[in-house]
Amino acid sequence: MKVDVIVFECREGSLLQTEAVVTQKKQKVKEQFHLFLTKKRLKATLQRNLILDAFVDLDRPTHMDELYLILRSKHSHIGHATVYRALRLFAAAGIAREFSLGDGLTRYELAGHGKRHDYLVCSDCGTVTEFDNSSIEERQLAVARSMGFTVEALKIELRGVCSRCLTQSG
């Protein structure tokens, strides 16, 4: 019984610590965006703040239409063009990274210093899942070193069918 209490307290402590880190990250992103807006003499509108909150809370790569649908379900006054312009502003402010996976959609993710960008891309539904595997990275860097190559960026993109689509199809 005492073990259960200790395990619960550890989980609770970890959860609180994780929430604090997320809140701190969100605050830092908001500050960076508002500094950018001030420098550009732009307004920090309610819509921009709501879009920024949704983007940071999502915490994974997304495209404009997906973010628009998420926002539209809670804030019907936010338009498609407003989401598009906000995402472009986030990229200009350096808080979002814009990228494409060759499928015609421009995606956005929170910009991170030194963050690798490895993705699983479902060819059926288009879902993009970010993953991290340090042993893959170590092997890639070893190959590069052996060939006298200095790596500036790493990106892995694996295309296939996600488990949800596999379940639905069979």
UniProtKB/TrEMBL annotation:
Binding site for Fe cation: D118, E137
Subcellular location(s) per record: Cytoplasm
GO biological process, one term: negative regulation of siderophore biosynthetic process
InterPro entries registered for this protein in UniProt: FUR, Fur_C, WH-like_DNA-bd_sf, WH_DNA-bd_sf
Primary subcellular site in the record, as a coarse category: cytoplasm
Family membership: Belongs to the Fur family.
Protein name per the record: Ferric uptake regulation protein
Native source species: Geomonas terrae
